[in-house]
Specification:
Elements lengths: L5 E3 L10 E5 L2 E6 L2 H4 L3 E9 L5 E9 L1 H16 L8 H22 L5 H7 L5 H14 L6 H14 L4 H13 L3
Parallel strand pairs: 1-3
Antiparallel strand pairs: 2-3, 4-5
Helix pairs in contact: 2-3, 2-4, 2-5, 3-6, 3-7
Length: about 180
C-alpha cells in the first residue's frame, strides 16, 4: 500500500513545482483539484502489526472514487503530454497507461451506481474550468477505439498480461462514454 499526501497547487514551495510543506520533514505533492478531493472522502480503519510485532489500528481518510477519477483523468493528460517531467517520456508513458487503466476500473466498478455520474460531475462546484478540463479529457482520450486513452489502456494490457483482449477494449470504451451521459 502506498499513502500519498496531497495539497492544493496554490500552496506549493516557491522553488519546487511539485511539493508542498505540511510540517517539518513531511511534504505533500501539489495537485490541481486537491481542494475538491480533500472534501470528497470517507474513513476506514487499517489493522496490522508494527515492525516490533505489536498490533496497531489506525483510522485513515481516503478519497472517494469520484474524486480519484478526477485526479486520474487530469494525470492521464499530464503524463501523456509529458507536462510534469518532460525529461522522462518513457516513465510518463507508463504512468499514463496506469492512469488510463485505473480510470477505466473506477468507472467500471462505480457506473452501475445510478448516482456516480451525478457525484462525479457535481463535485466540481464552482470549479467550472476544472470540470471543463475533465469533460475535454474524456471526450478526447476516450472518444473512439483509436483515442489516446484507449491506446494507453491497450498498452497497459499488453505490458501487464502479454496480450490485448479486443472485447475488453471495446467494453472499456463503452463504459468510459457512459461518464458523459
Amino acid at each position: 500500500m502506498r499513502i500519498e499526501f496531497m495539497a492544493s497547487d496554490k500552496e506549493k514551495r516557491p522553488k519546487d513545482p511539485v511539493r508542498v510543506d505540511i510540517q517539518k520533514g513531511i511534504h505533500a505533492f501539489q495537485c490541481v483539484g486537491a481542494e475538491i478531493v480533500l472534501q470528497q472522502f470517507d474513513y476506514a480503519f487499517i489493522e496490522g502489526n508494527l515492525p516490533d510485532g505489536r498490533p496497531a489500528k489506525v483510522k485513515i481518510r481516503f478519497a472517494k472514487p469520484n474524486a480519484v477519477l478526477m485526479l486520474k483523468l487530469l494525470a492521464i493528460k499530464d503524463r501523456y503530454k509529458n507536462l510534469r517531467r518532460p525529461d522522462k517520456p518513457k516513465e510518463n508513458r507508463e504512468r499514463a497507461q496506469v492512469h488510463s487503466a485505473d480510470s477505466i476500473k473506477i468507472v467500471r466498478h462505480n457506473i452501475q451506481n445510478g448516482n456516480f455520474n451525478k457525484l462525479f460531475w457535481s463535485q466540481f462546484g464552482k470549479e467550472e474550468g476544472l470540470k471543463q478540463q475533465c469533460v475535454e479529457i474524456v471526450m478526447e482520450y476516450f472518444k473512439d477505439i483509436d483515442a489516446p486513452g484507449i491506446q494507453l489502456y491497450r498498452e497497459f494490457m499488453q505490458s501487464q498480461y502479454g496480450n490485448i483482449d479486443e472485447a475488453e477494449v471495446s467494453r472499456a470504451l463503452r463504459e468510459m462514454k457512459l461518464l458523459l451521459q
